[in-house]
Design a protein that fits this description.
Chain A is mostly helical. Chain A is built from 23 helices and no strands. Classes of the chains: A mainly alpha, B alpha/beta.
Chain lengths: 518, 340
């Protein structure tokens, strides 16, 4: 209430008005539906039965698996991502200009497509290490991109001073470079860990049980029964623990260049003969992360021949996927505006609550949100149950954080003075918004929408649980066919999903460079 | 900068959203020339049925694809508000689940008359539409014929530790457990599942199990017969090194699962829905099972099985009333055993 009053009482130009506040409030309320659902199931199940369902050997097993996965994968991704970034940005390794896009490209391959590729190349792959390999190959760019951006930016003078004072290259890396990479490592690591908790298809295919796969199994056996909800509760706790850990580790230190003038580019380290093994390493990573999926898909396409290209079936899936993804992308970006507006233009407690709430939803796996929505709509809003609007709502909740990052950055760069000038010239509030604010934010908003578009187009778990009758998105079709081990028929769907994601991956890549001021 | 045409953009958006919601609405329309089937049977089989039915009657069939138990429980949760007209499963337990919730309408006499009594529940609330037999698929290089398990129950013994697998999370395997539960009771089932947790590897489904057995890790698996026959009729890619062992002797491992079909009481298209089930259990529908690629057993209208299959009557299956199969109890027991 306090927040609301503050906002309404300050009708200054550029500040969020009541409409914006109400929309943001609704979004925050929706954010808490999944959490509220989990808490209410604990109460309706009764504490005794909850304890029975939570404290059992299977949950311990899942916890061991899930923790093991995070503990193994995240450090490997960090070492790989930082190492690659350092080689590409700081050495004279041959072909340095095109390694960048190559190491961003794995983001275009959905993890479950990657899993399908690895399993069909090595059919006996299963268990923890299979999960670690596939997850690493899918997610290491999430560390690589920010690390490369950071390494490009800092003033080499600091490192040069350290060397002049007698530090060796290892000491310089540990004392000067690594601390600067801290935010990139922590942010990327957190993102990877959250992805690991939420991933379903990739781990089912290599028979590795995590909370998410187990929740899905429970859903298949009992449709939103108590056991599944309890597992979801434990999963949410895992996510919150990760958020807390990251916030603690991040600390408050800031690393910024001081002093005037433009920083020089860092001198690249001469690899000399060492370039050969380094180059071999880069090629090996590329082969594992891109070669395996592309080669496998190519092989299945060749084996399947023309027969697997059932264009009516594929066309229908494509149309449905594009329809859902387009609607969700536009709506999510639209919803991101009021939230971003408040975050950028207001310093109230409400703004902080909105930020926090958003952060928490971003950590909730799709399966928890979907499970909550199925149960809530079937009990309290039957007309909404199994409708397109409900799937879209789930997508908005799931992917709002992605849109928000872009829209907020765009909005922060709009000079409030221009809006004030527009108002002074007699334009109304909405007109000012459309003519000035939106137009200046459009590029950022378009990027955000594209990001959401790809996320929806490759989303699997929430779509499986929530989709209306007759829905068969590309991801669903791929999943059904690969589940029957009809790898050849699944290949065209895998290919289309990758191709659709390529432009956005490129966008992310260029964006990460821009963020570094290059 | 070029002015952005907001009006045309907004118009385009509206059209896109409207088109999407229109296409979505058509799923739940009240058009009598269209039914919604909650389909837990193989999509390819039901699609064959649906296409033949549409061709014959002009009635469109929309499928919602899902697993037996998921869709069964979903129907129970949906209750009278369910958009479904017909429910088809691979196994009986989910049918029993929906039947016990009182959600099925009585089936037309014509449909029931087409199906012999042993392939449908006595209540007449739903009917068998096909059948599948439990088998033990084993790798010929790893298991000599004289070391095959005599009973499904043997697989819980220590000598089978780490040597077999099954599609644990799937309704197929859970139906087999339901058969065991109906035949041997709760204590035997609980003990067997405990042994299974020790011994078996969990696969996502039958095909994955068979493929793993074919590559000799593990040695054997519990699956349904037709996955093997399908692969044999096809490329043999996933079954070349394997053979099937039928338990017979009325053993719980010789359990024959009845695929079910029923009409929802809440359906507003009773007549069309009934017509669809009459078609599936009729001659034309059952011949799809004989001539198509499914390799499941026909159960109605005196249609013989695919000649590649051993006759159903020779499998010496234990007698189980399909209405007695308890999916809920099975899930609870499997959760208790740490399998789910």
């Amino acid at each position: 209430m306090v927040a609301l009053r503050t906002v309404v009482a300050a009708p200054r130009i550029g500040r969020p008005g009541p409409l914006v506040t109400i929309v943001a409030l609704l979004l925050v309320a929706a954010t808490f539906v999944p959490l509220g659902y989990i808490v209410s199931t604990v109460f309706s199940t009764g504490l005794d039965q909850t304890a029975e369902l939570v404290f059992r050997p299977r949950v311990g097993e899942l916890l061991r698996n899930t923790v093991g996965l995070v503990v193994c994968t995240v450090p490997i991704c960090v070492v790989l991502g930082v190492g690659l970034a350092w080689v590409v940005e700081r050495t004279d390794v041959p072909g340095k200009s095109w390694w960048g896009p190559v190491f961003a490209a794995p983001l275009a391959v959905p993890a479950f497509v990657n899993s399908y590729a690895w399993v069909s190349a090595f059919p006996t792959m299963h268990g923890l290490w299979a999960g670690v390999v596939i997850a690493t190959m899918s997610y290491f760019p999430l560390v690589y991109l920010p690390a490369a951006a950071t390494l490009r930016r800092p003033d080499p003078a600091v490192e040069e001073s350290a060397r002049a004072l007698g530090s060796g290259p290892v000491a310089v890396f540990a004392r000067i470079v690594l601390p600067q990479l801290r935010l990139a490592i922590l942010g990327g690591g957190l993102l990877i860990a959250l992805h690991l908790l939420a991933e379903y298809g990739a781990f089912v295919m290599v028979r590795f049980d995590t909370f998410t796969t187990a929740i899905f199994e429970q859903y298949q056996s009992s449709f939103a029964g108590a056991a599944g909800s309890m597992l979801a509760g434990v999963l949410v706790l895992c996510c919150l623990a990760l958020l807390a850990a990251e916030a603690t580790l991040r600390g408050r230190a800031h690393y910024a260049r001081i002093g005037g003038g433009a920083p020089r580019a860092a001198t690249r380290i001469q690899l000399g003969i060492g370039a050969i093994p380094v180059l071999a390493g880069l090629v090996a990573v590329t082969a594992a992360a891109l070669g395996v999926p592309l080669w496998t898909i190519g092989r299945w396409l060749r084996i399947g021949g023309a027969a697997v290209w059932d264009f009516t079936e594929i066309g229908m899936s494509l149309a449905q996927t594009v329809g859902l993804a387009l609607t969700a992308a536009l709506l999510t970006t639209l919803c991101a505006f009021p939230v971003a507006w408040i975050a950028v233009r207001s310093t109230s407690a409400f703004a902080r609550i909105i930020e926090g709430a958003n952060y928490i939803t971003s950590s909730l796996p799709g399966i928890v949100i979907a499970l909550a929505m199925v149960t809530v709509t079937i009990r309290w809003a039957p007309p909404l149950y199994q409708t397109v609007s409900m799937v879209i709502a789930a997508y908005v909740l799931l992917f709002l954080p992605r849109a928000l990052v872009g829209v907020r950055a765009g909005l922060a760069q709009v000079p409030v003075g221009l809006e004030e000038a527009s108002r002074a010239l007699g334009k109304s509030g909405p007109a000012t918004f459309f003519l000035v604010t939106l137009r200046l934010t459009a590029p950022a908003a378009a990027a955000a929408a594209a990001l959401v578009f790809v996320a929806v187009a490759t989303e699997l778990t929430a779509t499986l649980l929530l989709a209306p009758n007759g829905t068969r998105t590309l991801a669903m079709r791929f999943w059904a066919l690969s589940g029957e081990l009809d790898y050849a028929a699944a290949a065209p769907y895998a290919l289309i999903m990758i191709v659709a994601a390529v432009p956005v991956t490129y966008l992310l890549f260029t964006h990460s460079r821009k963020a570094a001021g290059i | 900068m070029k002015p952005v045409r907001w009006k045309s953009l907004a118009a385009g958006l509206t059209v896109a959203v409207a088109a999407l919601s229109l296409s979505a609405c058509s799923n739940s329309s009240d058009d009598a020339n269209e039914i919604t089937v909650y389909n837990a049977q193989h999509e390819s089989l039901t699609k064959e049925w649906a296409d033949a039915f549409t061709e014959q009657t002009g009635i469109k069939v929309t499928l919602r694809q899902g697993g037996d138990t998921a869709l069964g429980n979903q129907l129970v949760a949906e209750g009278a508000a369910s958009p479904a007209d017909v429910f088809l499963t691979e196994n009986s337990p989910a049918m029993a689940l929906v039947e016990n919730a009182g959600l099925f309408a009585d089936l037309d006499k014509q449909t029931l008359d087409q199906v012999p009594a042993q392939y449908r529940p006595s209540t007449g609330k739903w009917t068998g539409i096909a059948a599948r037999s439990t088998v033990f698929v084993y790798n010929k290089n790893k298991v000599p014929a004289d070391q095959l398990p005599a009973s499904l129950l043997d697989l819980a013994q220590p000598q089978w530790k780490g040597r077999w697998g099954a599609g644990v999370s799937g309704a197929d395997f859970q139906a087999i457990v339901a058969g065991l539960l109906a035949l041997k009771g709760e204590d035997v089932t609980r003990a067997w599942l405990k042994g299974m947790k020790e011994n078996a590897a969990a696969f996502p489904n039958n095909v994955a199990t068979m493929k793993a057995v074919n590559s000799a890790s593990p040695d054997g698996g519990v699956i349904y017969h037709y996955y093997w026959y399908r692969d044999q009729a096809n490329t043999k890619e996933s079954s070349a090194d394997t053979a099937l062992h039928y338990f017979k002797n009325q053993d719980p491992g010789a359990f024959v699962s009845i695929s079910g079909g029923g009409v929802l009481k809440s359906s507003k298209k009773q007549e069309t829905a009934q017509k669809f089930l009459a078609f599936i259990t009729g001659k034309a529908g059952q011949e799809v099972l004989r001539d198509g690629t499914s390799m499941e057993y026909p159960v109605a209208s005196d249609v013989a099985a695919n000649p590649a299959l051993p006759p159903l009557a020779d499998l010496k299956a234990p007698a189980v009333d399909p209405s007695e199969l308890d999916a809920k109890k099975v899930t609870a027991l499997m959760t208790e055993a740490g399998l789910l």
